[in-house]
Write a sequence for this structure.
């Protein structure tokens, strides 16, 4: 005979879906709350820079990233109010499996504790490959931070399939052009060229930003 189970299954499935959505919403709130705190003055802000772009008479694109991070760590140590923080980092040798595994574990631990993720870069500030300028940086966000970007239910199977099918070629091309314009703007600025010459580069970046590219990429 009918034990009643067939009548309960549709309700159990519906309850399960809504319980999952509730859990996803709770994780969404927990993710964005890590980046919220009262700010009453500049002293309440926290900055963790990773490039020392320029100083009087010099643009530092010729220095590698290790130099940039070491210089910024010195500035952070001299920050009396703690606004400037040293950026955590590590070098990974892609030819060494142990080094790659250690880098992966570092990212997993960082994001598991609620960290946003990491930015992966070549050692040198500017690198050229067989196809031209190499992408200067790639942001690798953690799964919970992605919830802030794409919404509470982004990791549902149907949503993940849709996200995986997106093309990022346009965004990568845009990033390279904006990177080149940014470097040129700094070079012109430290050479004390007229402000209109610097603004040419700035307006070029603004024009590129008007292109229809998903800002969440």
């Amino acid at each position: 005979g009918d034990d009643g189970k067939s009548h309960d299954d549709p309700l159990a499935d519906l309850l399960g879906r809504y319980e999952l959505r509730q859990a996803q919403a709770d994780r969404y709130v927990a993710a964005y709350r890590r980046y919220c705190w009262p700010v009453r003055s500049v002293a309440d802000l926290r900055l963790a820079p990773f490039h020392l772009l320029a100083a009087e008479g010099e643009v530092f694109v010729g220095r590698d990233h290790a130099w940039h991070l070491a210089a910024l760590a010195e500035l952070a140590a001299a920050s009396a109010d703690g606004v400037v923080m040293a950026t955590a980092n590590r070098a990974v040798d892609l030819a060494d499996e142990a080094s790659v595994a250690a880098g992966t574990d570092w990212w997993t631990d960082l994001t598991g504790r609620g960290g946003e993720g990491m930015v992966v870069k070549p050692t040198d500030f500017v690198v050229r490959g067989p196809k031209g300028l190499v992408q200067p940086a790639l942001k690798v966000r953690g799964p919970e931070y992605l919830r802030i970007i794409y919404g509470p239910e982004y990791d549902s199977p149907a949503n993940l399939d849709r996200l995986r099918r997106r093309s990022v070629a346009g965004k990568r091309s845009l990033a390279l052009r904006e990177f080149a314009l940014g470097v040129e703007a700094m070079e012109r600025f430290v050479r004390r060229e007229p402000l209109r010459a610097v603004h040419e580069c700035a307006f070029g970046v603004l024009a590129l930003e008007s292109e229809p590219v998903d800002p969440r990429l």
About this structure: The CA atoms of residues 18 and 85 lie 41 Å apart. The first helix runs from residue 5 to 33. Helices lie at 5-33, 65-77, 97-112, 143-150, 157-164, 169-190, 195-209. The chain is about 50% helix and 5% strand.
